[in-house]
Amino acid sequence: MTSWYGYERGELHADGVPLASLADEFGTPCYVYSRQALEARFAAFDHAFRRDALVCYAVKANSNLAVLQVLARAGAGFDIVSLGELKRVIAAGGDPGKSVFAGACKLDHELEGALQAGIRCINVESEAELESLGETAGRLGVEAPVALRVNPDVAAGAHPHIATGLKEHKFGIPLDRARDIYDRIAAHDALRAHGVACHIGSQIMDLAPLAESAARVAELARELLSAGHELVSLDLGGGLGTDTPDQAAPSPLQLARALEEATAGLDLELVIEPGRAIAGPAGLLLTRVAYTKDGDDRAFALVDAAMNDLLRPALYGAWHDILPVVPAGSARRMDVVGPVCESADFLGKDRELAVTAGSLLAVADAGAYGFTMSSNYNSRPRCAEVIIDSGQARLIRARETFDDLVRGERLLA
Ligand code: LLP
After folding, report:
1. Is the domain of 234 the same as that of 152?
2. Is 341 considered catalytic here?
3. How far away, in angstroms, is 167 Cα from ligand 1 center?
4. Against a cut of 0.90, is the pTM above it?
5. Cβ(199) to ligand 1 under 6 A?
6. Which of 273, 309, 315, 373 most suits a substitution to test ligand 1, by most atoms within 8 Å of the C-beta?
7. Span 133-158, pLDDT tens digits
8. Is residue 396 included in any domain, yes or no?
């Protein structure tokens, strides 16, 4: 896919709009998304499969209502992990009947809310949670559609914080215990087996572990079907990575071929839950250089965005390309750092950049796990979010104010 941002006459534009004009209109720091890029990336998954498949966008990657609305209108289902995410999906016009509820520890009121909303499937992660779901569904007089999220014990090769598919991880139910639990589901009045689910991690650059875990859960599904369980779907999770400087990520088409091959002959609907690969490349973080500083050891570009706005470099050592909107001065190696009082507060280290005070920078591939992981640390208001829709920039979340920061707080009498 061609990029939605690039240089025109020496100035960085996004979907034809000069980024400098967005900084003038909305201020910095500011997340900028492209509707067209979101739609194109969703469509790449949606059209990739040769058999029945449902693409459930992982809301946690970017849960802005307008982003969800764009994807809902494009026909997406949703992968949610909390009642808050489900309420967002509904508020954005998404269909709970095309949404799956994942997550390691769903609370009773969340299970109740999801059942009342008509959720497609609840991916259960422990026997205790299953029991709770059975009670809740029984109390409501409904039958809960269940998939067990099994832990296939496959290493995903991702950063350790975001790998989830090994026995040592808190996620899922061991594969060899699943058979018995499905028998219990069959015997329970308020539970109905809908499918089998797995998810082994995130930012996965190699199809082999994804295919291996798909093959393992497909094997379990085959056993369950032959034992008489009437399954409908096989949920293979999310996790497809996005390009890094030294590696191109597999395409949705390549993922689809690998998953279809690994599950060949199994007549179940496939569900996938991509988050990053849809939203990540469709967003950037726009920030302004406030000062430059030459230390003894290195030079710094001190910018107005910080780890509270984009936590990924600090938390995972994640690499995001950083582009000057209009290169200024001569290029030199710099660390791009923010105002937060922590040495972990950096957006990029040792980057070759031509910038001076006042220059704008675009931090690329920031559409996923950017705003959703942002915080008010150091009492910094969370930044604005803007989407470009047919060449028009629209504000989809206002920058927070001091009143927003202290909302709900009380002084003592
Ligand atoms: N399904 C389940 C059950 C998940 O836990 C996740 C992500 C996804 C789908 C979507 O995975 P994706 O396609 O986006 O890789 N904050 C981290 C990523 C955490 C992912 C958590 N689970 C980061 O910024 O890299």
Report:
1. yes
2. yes
3. 18
4. yes
5. yes
6. 273
7. 999 999 999 999 999 999 998 988 66
8. yes
